[in-house]
Design brief:
The chain has 202 residues and is α+β, with helices and mostly antiparallel strands. The protein has two helices and 14 strands. Strands 1, 2, 3, 4, 5, 6, 7, 8, 9, 10, 11, 12, 13 and 14 form a 14-stranded antiparallel beta sheet that branches.
């Protein structure tokens, strides 16, 4: 039996409506069958890490620079610093550099340190190594240094090599001559010198 043109047109119009509805129903079924994933669960973070970071407030590669009244340049750098409640900073791998107006220089390095800017003091501790452009290499365990003044003093014994030879002392101090204004190192409290031939020039 032949299908009339009118019947064919009605059939095509019905398919245009039915097929899109069927496709939407199929997609809805797929969404219902899928897992209900929490989008926040896809973000990898640790609550403990975030709390620790907020609590520590650590600063990486901090630097501090100042100058003495005479124009000597003093700079400190560290690998990391963490603030204390009293506004001081605990530092790791603390280094200091002093460039004096006389042309001489001094470098200090230590495993840890305590920076107290209000008191104009930095304490370097743990395997402290001091080298000077005048040929001294000094080892000690702790030294206090000025951050804007040319001063430094060890807390205890030093072991050193320099132009006079190899020696030890109970304490070392970097100070300034009040008359000339020139800085110099002072070794006190039982200096013991071992002369090394060939270390000085006549």
């Amino acid at each position: 039996m032949a299908v009339s043109e009118a019947s064919r047109a009605r059939y095509i119009r019905w398919l245009k409506i039915a097929l899109p509805l069927a496709a939407m129903a199929l997609l809805s079924t797929l969404f219902l069958l899928s897992d209900n994933a929490d989008p926040m669960a896809e973000i990898p973070f640790s609550t403990i890490d975030l709390e620790e970071s907020a609590r520590s407030q650590r600063v990486t590669r901090p630097s501090f620079a100042g100058a003495s009244a005479e124009g000597d340049l003093i700079a400190f750098t560290a690998a990391e610093a963490r603030p204390r409640e009293d506004n001081r900073l605990d530092a790791t791998e603390l280094n200091a550099r002093i460039d004096m107006t006389s042309g001489n220089g001094l470098d200090v390095s230590a495993a840890t340190g305590l920076i107290d800017q209000p008191a104009d003091t930095a304490t370097l501790a743990g395997g402290v190594l001091i080298t000077t452009t005048t040929g001294y290499r000094i080892e000690t365990e702790e030294i206090d240094m000025g951050m804007k003044a040319l001063r430094a003093q060890t807390a205890g014994e030093i072991r050193a090599e320099g132009p006079p030879g190899r020696f030890t002392a109970g304490r070392m101090e970097l100070t300034t001559d009040p008359e000339t204004g020139k800085p110099y190192l002072v070794f006190t409290q039982g200096v013991k010198l071992v002369y090394l031939p060939g270390t000085t020039e006549e």
